[in-house]
Amino acid sequence: MRETFERMRGQGVAWLDGHRAHVVVAMGATGLTLTSVSPVAPLIASVVAVVAGVRMGMARTATVVAVALAIGGVVGTARLAAIDGPVSRLEPGQRVAGQAQLSEAPRRGPYGPSAELSIESGPAEGARLLARFARDVRFARDVGPGSEMVVSGVFDTVESSNSDGFDFAAHLRRRGVAGALEVESLRLTGARRGGVAGALDSVRRRADAALVAELSASGAGLARGMVLGDDETVPTGTRDDFRDSGLAHLLAASGQNVLLLMALAVPLLALVGVSYRARIPVLLILIALYVPLAGGGPSIQRAGVMGAAALLAVALARPASRWYALGLAACVTLVLNPRAWGEPGWQLSFAAVTGILVLAPGIRGSLRALPRAAAEGVALTVAATVATAPLLAHHFGTVPLAGLGANIAALPLVAPIMWLGMLRAAAGQAIPATGLVNDLLGAPLAPLLTGLERLAALFADVPGGQLALPLDSPLAVALAYAAIAAAVATVRRASRRLDTRASTAVAYVRRLPRTRQIGLAVTAAALLALGLARGLSPAGPPATLTVTFLDVGQGDATLIQHPDGSAVLFDGGPPEAGTARLLRRAGVRRLSALVMTHASRDHHGGLAEVVERFPVELLLDGGDASRDRDFRSVVARAEHHGATRVVAAAPLTLRAGAIRIQVLSPRPRPPGPPPEDPNPRAVVAIVSCDGFDLLLSGDAESDALLPPALPDVEAMKLPHHGSADPGLTAVLERLRPEVASIPVGENSYGHPAPSTLAALRDAEVPTWRTDRNGSVRVAVEDGAVEVEAARGGPIEARP
To answer: Are the C-beta atoms of residues 536 and 459 closer than 8 Å to each other?
Structure first.
């Protein structure tokens, strides 16, 4: 036993001595990581390494390890001091004023836009803060990274976590943002930052304009995400589809972007006559430009460093070590921010590359029957998918089982999209975005983006495509990786036994006449296509009259469907609800009628995506002459796509296929500016079909509901998310509903109010609420009403 141990120790020492550079970068990265846990952690690790090394007779190697750990600790401590220093001078409630630069484009949220910015003057100079702007503040599209403004507001800390367990404060801290600025006043100066960063901003703006020219809103969002790493304008439903189908990584610039950039640039450089020696510095410059243009996130930083290391190895005529390049990439990203390792994106990026280095060669070898390019693509996809699965489960609680198939199916689309997008972005630096060259590049780009979007939607809707697997602790993640390692070892042992048979089968196929090989390939492709068509076929309309109170968070959206294909939608929730996606999953292909009850973000915000994705025959406009730009934009887009607009003013009766809509309120009002509060004049309507009546009233409460004649109804939606309404008892006595639903999400308004729940309890109305039950379906057949909720049964009418 002792001899075996000594032999293994000798082999280990020899390997470490021969790979000292690998040890240095690995320990340097470890020291940087430990610094974010405690300033003394690298020192403790160094002492432990020296003691252990001396005891094992590896003093020289232990000294190298200790020094690398210590250097990593010193650098990490200095970087954290530089990041945290400016914010350490601020106290919660302290006023902050001065000039600032945006670090990103403002993102709109339910409470207004927000953006990370750096303070450039005043007592908070150098601090990176999350600026929260007032809800009514709007920014032009060209306001983004580098835009300068003068701001004034109050500094505050960020809450550690919210109800779903996501630690937002820790997320910001890992990004170098240690607090929030509640902006009270701002003034855009019109100026932008200068220097190299300003020049890159200009390049990015021209690239963006050329990239998205003449593309649809959805296609433009996808192109920005895939080529420039900016997913801000990707529609919510599309982003959710990419997440659930396992394609979310395509919307963030990563290693494959750099790989495809090199694959595009090398033949172009050769075509224009650039010599072999000159190509390497040109490629290094391209990487240095592309990394910040693509957002400069951890994934693209890692890819850039690894790509640069590989190119330098070629230039120096030294064999490139991918493991060394990976360690070097970890060091560089952690030097920039030692806390970056805690970000899911950083972890997933490095896990994917590690999986590719370990697993891809074996997978590629087992796919000898495929063409080389196809085998390479499948091997990389399978390896990265397997390697990232435990981390996905740890951070997001689910694993997209459909992801493997979706990524393989997307392979033929991704490279052409990237190359066309990169060429458009490059051409935009010298050629107008509307030029002939850009038009020629955009002609194939648009259908490719549409195809990828539809592919993501198909795989996102696969039944059972999401596996709930909450790995809540690091130990659970480690055990999951151990299980994967055991499975890989088992498969490799089994594959050795099957290798001879597989080789025989491949040789047999290759000896067949060419026509028979083609026939076998066509047959296999047809069977695969048939299986995919059956498994991925979209849902159709329900077999019975169905009302679905959609779970759109703190918002409102109700869908009514008839078996004849008629579909009516009342409101669409907020923009982040992904209502278009919910409609698709419900089997909606077109909307017979779209009712916009009133101008309110949590009612009309999600309809911008709906009118772009679904044909709308009739639009009932309840805006009441609202000047809300987003509301009017939805109406204009619907009309542009062929919808017939009708102003909602009672009395009015409309038909949408088999569904009858009777508008009871609001009554016409004299000309003039719209009322300050749109809620009381929201559309109140009775929706009827096959003896079933449903009351929908937007945010209009009893003051608007009691004046008109109200019939008995089978179902109703509680107005205004169940807010306190003294007249609700009288409304319930009039309507006598069999079923009630409260559309509500996480909120700070106290919805639903205790008095509302008490009134429902006293009226003995079975009630469901979307925050607890999810989407609620009411099916009507032969006069019988049956309710089915995504989770749970009717609530007890108590707070």
So the answer is: yes
Of 255, 252, 228, which is closest to residue 239 (Cα–Cα)?
252
Write out the E strands in 257-315: none
Q: What is the rounded CA–CA span in Å between residue 62 and residue 56?
A: 10
For residues 742 and 718, give the distance between their C-alpha atoms in angstroms, rounded to a whole number. 5
If one compares 99 and 514, the residue with the highest pLDDT of the two is 99
Q: Output the six-digit token pair for 228.
A: 């420039």
Backbone dihedral angles phi then psi of residue 688, each to the nearest 5 degrees? -130, 145
Residues 226 and 281 in one domain: no
| Residues 157 and 290 occupy one common structural domain | no
**pLDDT tens-digit series, residues 25-39:** 888 889 999 998 888
pLDDT of residue 445 exceeding 90, the answer is yes
- Antiparallel, parallel or unpaired: β 616-621 and 644-647: parallel
Query: Is residue 215 located within the same domain as residue 349?
Result: no
Question: Mind giving me the DSSP string for 34-99?
Answer: HHTT-TTHHHHHHHHHHHHHHHTT-HHHHHHHHHHHHHHHHHHHHHHHHHHHHHHT--TT-EEEEE
| Domain presence at residue 719 | yes
Residue 134 sits in the same domain as residue 154: yes
Whole-structure pTM over 0.85, yes or no? no
The dihedral of CA 53, 54, 57, 61: what is its sign?
A: positive
60 φ, ψ to 5°? -65, -45
**Helix H segments across 397-473?**
403-427, 436-460
Q: Which phi-psi region, left, alpha or beta, contains residue 300 (left: φ > 0; alpha: ψ -120 to 50)? A: alpha
- Write the CATH number for 709: 3.60.15.10
In angstroms, what is the C-alpha Rg of the chain?
A: 30
Q: Is residue 329 part of a domain?
A: no
148, 229: one domain: no
Q: Is 38 exposed, middle or buried (0-12, 13-18, 19+ CB in 10 A)?
A: exposed
pLDDT, residue 16, reads: 57
Condensed to tens digits (0 to 9), the pLDDT of residues 732-791 reads: 999 999 999 999 998 888 999 999 999 999 999 999 999 999 999 999 988 789 999 988
What burial class does residue 71 get, using C-beta atoms within 10 Å of its C-beta: 0-12 exposed, 13-18 middle, 19+ buried? middle
Distance CA 621, CA 645 (A): 7
1: number of Cβ within 10 Å:
5
Q: What is d(CA 205, CA 220) in angstroms, rounded to the nearest whole number?
A: 14
Give the DSSP H or E segment for 516: helix 514-536
Distance of CA 259 to CAs 63, 306, 452, 702, Å?
37, 10, 20, 62
- Whether the CB-CB separation of 377 and 343 falls below 8 Å is answered with no
Q: Which tokens is 606 given?
A: 């999600």
Residue 577 lies in a domain: yes
Q: Are residues 740 and 607 in the same domain?
A: yes
Burial class (CB in 10 A: 0-12, 13-18, 19+), 203: middle
In whole angstroms, give the CA distance from residue 595 to residue 638: 12
Domain limit, last residue, from 521, 537, 553: 537
* Pair (550, 699) in one structural domain: yes
Strand order of the sheet with strand 767-769?
A: 652-656, 659-665, 684-689, 692-696, 715-717, 739-742, 767-769
**In a domain? residue 324:** no
Q: What is the DSSP letter of 795?
A: B
How many domains does the chain divide into? 6
d(CA 291, CA 262): 13
- DSSP at 353: H
Residues 613 and 702 placed together within one structural domain of the fold: yes
Strand partners, 119: 100
Per-residue CA distances from 303 to 225, 327, 647, 697 (Å) = 17, 12, 54, 53
Q: Of 482, 509, 537, which residue is a domain's last?
A: 537
Range of the domain at 594: 545-789
* Domain at 183, CATH number: 2.40.50
